[in-house]
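Entry 0007
Protein: Cation-transporting ATPase
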Amino acid sequence: MCIAGYIFSCGALLLLFYWKPAWDVWANCIPCNLQEADVILLRTTDEFQKYTRKKVTWIDLSKLNLSVRDTSDSLFIADKDSVINRAIMKPELKVRSIQVQKIWYIWDLSMKQFQKVGSLDDSNSCYDIHDKFGTGLTREEQNIRRLVCGPNAIEVEIRPIWKLLFKEILNPFYVFQTFTLTLWLSQGYVEYSVAIIILSVISIGLTVYDLRQQSVKLHDLVEEHNKVQVTACTKDEGCKKLESHYLVPGDILVLEGKKHSLPCDAILIDGGCIVDEGMLTGESIPVTKTPLPHMENTKSWKTHSAEDYRRHVLFCGTEVIQTKPTGKGPVRAVVLQTGFNTAKGDLVRSILYPKPMNFKLYRDAFKFIIILTLIGVLGLIYTVCVYVQHKKPVAETVAMALLLFTVSVPPAIPAALTTGIVYAQKRLKNKKIFCISPQRINICGQINLVCFDKTGTLTEDGLDLWGLIPSEGSRFQNVYSFASGTPLPWGLPCGAMASCHSLIVLDEKIQGDPLDRKMFECTCWEMEDSSTAHSKAAVPDTSVIVKPGPNTRNAPVDGIAILHQFPFSSGLQRMSVITQQLGKDQYDLYMKGAPEMVTSFCRPETVPTDFVKELKVYTTQGFRVIALAHRALNMGKDVELDNLEREEVESDLTFLGLLIMENRLKAETKPVLEELSTARIRSVMITGDNLQTAVTVAKNSGMISKTSKVILIEASEPEGPTPASITWQLMEDSKQMAAGITDTCVNIEERTIPERESNNYHFALNGKSYQIIVKHFKSLLPKILVNGTVFARMSPGQKSSLIEEFQKLNYYVGMCGDGANDCGALKMAHAGISLSEQEASVASPFTSQVPNIECVPELIREGRAALVASFAVFKYLTLYGLTQFIGTALLYWQLQIFGNYQYLMQDVVITLLVCLTMSLTQAYPKLAPYRPPGQLISPPLLLSVILHTGITAIMLVCGFLLVKQQPWYSEMANHRESHSGNPSILTTYFQSCCSPSLEFAFSSSLLTSMLYTRECSFSALQRSGEFTS
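Output (structure tokens):
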């Protein structure tokens, strides 16, 4: 039946099914159980509920010549919990599968559902990872996994031009335009049809070129990682070289000493390594990876490692810059995920399949076109009635009816809108702002809230060491100022600064985190690898050795060997190292991190009683504060440091003091934030730094005015019978804090802040409190977000969540950042602006090559200009279409029609040129304190269109009737062949077409437009009489 429908409808039914895949499935398939289905209809769970048709494919394992397994409970995969074992149908040896957005799913015969493949099960414990996969897979198991999971490759096809072309041409509007042009050509309107074809080809060409360029860039970006030579080990064949696309989850990967890119996600199980995650996160800072502990427990390896599981994982796309093998053998890792399941694959998928933006302009535009189409249907009925009444032939009646139907929807709409976006994109490029998603430029015009990262975005990347406040005998000592130039004397604080870091020596240069580098430089010590060090100390070759430099004071130590690191993570907010003084057997542990976190691991008697007061004195001045701590470890020489859990040694520490670092604002920060505030655009800070420091930076930058009050919000988890609670504390200045701190509890439901005073209050909270509020005080969250300005100690996931919560409050959110913690938020925001040139920029719609926030107002200005131009073009073309529709309908009353050159004059010279040049107008240099309208279906716009169309129709009809009553008027014969038409109507209509052009050029309000239109209409009446006479 459907095939017959395709034939008899000349492909129209097939085209309809292309637009509506759900209808295609319902028409061609019979509903059945999921396990019996050959075709599956998928629907997204978001508000758009987009349908996708997927065909079930069969994977045949029999061609692998597997060893025969007769019993139904026999295993093909050594991991008995693997979904692959539950998916193989016996004895056929087949697996049902589907691919959704580059991810493969196979049918689980036990669970009766499709399960994702291409990664190891998260339920595996640390012991399982070592025991099941530590010796590698068999060749047979590798082949099975490779066939089921697919190759380890992130393959992004360079979409052929013909595919992009057909996809663009099959857009509903272009299909309607094709029908329109075919009709016009059949009626002999060649000139205008050719003009529209040329413009449409240019419009389609620009769109296809942009899509093709994006496809090529993305393909080139990922292609190099698909052809990496690696060393993998199997149980039966040992280690050998192979291409990375042959890797499967569970393989053993041997990491060699030379620099190389990682082709998959892997869990480190032996040895350590240092990787550069800049290509994935945007931060080119070496990160130390440690092996997964080999210990017996039943907890998932991710749960065991809590939020810090990433320290064991090597991510696809990152670069191994140094390996640290242990005495057991080489550095080894278990392949965790392959292909598009990897972290890099997930990033690429987010670019290939972005989350649809719910922008009301595009929905309203579609509704507007539907309304115009309905008006066209009325015109079609009107034409049929007129021509039937005059007993015209059926062919002519149908042709004229379809012609009037096509007049109501102007065919130049897509060309004009595309041109406007191209102009805006070119202007942004001239300002070194690059865009990979041009459709979001219009959305930028609606932004009313911008979130900023702090470090590297609002403030400078580098930190200056201001001073050290050592602690001794549970009391703070005098501040040691680094500005004095005097070398730091030896002591435990000096030992902590010299050794508690993740710096490495690479190419004879010290590389690592800027904070660590600055801290180490101030000690005047030197660093070298133990493998190249001329030391007689018995330390592992993988250790880093630091020694007093020539400019240091006489230190009673030869040097310190850094034996083991517990790396820093934003979730744990600390790092620690195990060290050994050269020539001694004593082990020491040094810790540094967030002061609140470090002191929680210290013995209370070693923490000064005025710790909180001293900390707030410096954080409220905008300093970044790092706490230092130490513990002497009593361990034997034979202890396995790699198997130590940080919880075993990170306890009973001695507090050493506070390291004070200065983070300066960028020169452009304050003026930009003032400009946004003047334009009534909210600014919010989302940072991983200390809350007090973040509040001070917000005040110094102008994000919070000096007269505004800041309320600190602290939420607590429920404990036993005590429910979750929130504390509201009014932040005082540093002088008052020095005198004492008083907490104030406020019930926000009993005492709400009046709207007129809301700008005088700003809420500030940390990530932990935010998470508790989301979980236990969800109804209170909108009230907090409306006045929330500073969100500190936020994890990457919390940043993305916060952006999403702001969007739920109908904010149009922009996000500007440059670091590792910003990638998710940049993707979630309506307009993510990356200041990084690394791969994180690919995941962001906009990238600025100028590394400061001046790009934010520039982008908003261009967005507003593009949005206003889009509204003006749409409104202008709507008025033009309706005016031409009315004029053509009046001509039909006399069985007349416009001539070819008259249509060409109206459609191209009067209308199209105006639309194409309208968007050339530059953006206004200042941000106005109001946004352009965000919806087409709004009372002012509808009133403008309706009144203008109504007045134009009245004047046209009046002119038509008035001219016919003149004594010099005579009825004309059918001059369709001459294409000249009725002079009175043509003159009146020409004036009516000119009026909207002039109106858009000079009008400043709705009243002005109405008066000018009426004046032009009366002028048209007068001139029509002159022309006819």
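Curator remark: The mean pLDDT is 79. The first helix runs from residue 2 to 8.
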